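Render this sequence as a predicted structure.
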Amino acid sequence: MLYALRDDAGAIVALSEKPLNDQWQVINPKDPALKAFLEQKMEFGKLVMQTSDLDFIRVLEDLVELMIEKNMISFTDFPPAAQEKLLTRRGYREQMRGKDTVSLIGQEEDLL
């Protein structure tokens, strides 16, 4: 059985496999409030993953720059489309960073 906790407006705010107190009610799996609750939670999960993805992209960019700097890979090993994207992202990051910050690859160094 599935139990739901509802707010004053009747919207589901939590689900459980067992009632945790007398406020928890058995819920019908076809209840529209259940569908709305689950859709809201999926949207929240997507937002969390998107935020995590953006943070991870930054890590990957730093890793690529570090590997190029250490001659573990060559910038020209990447396909042209990837090279263009890396250069574009690097340019955006440098603009956001300003001139007084440290970059993994110095300003005077050429990636090629």
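Summary. The chain is about 50% helix and 10% strand. The mean pLDDT is 86.
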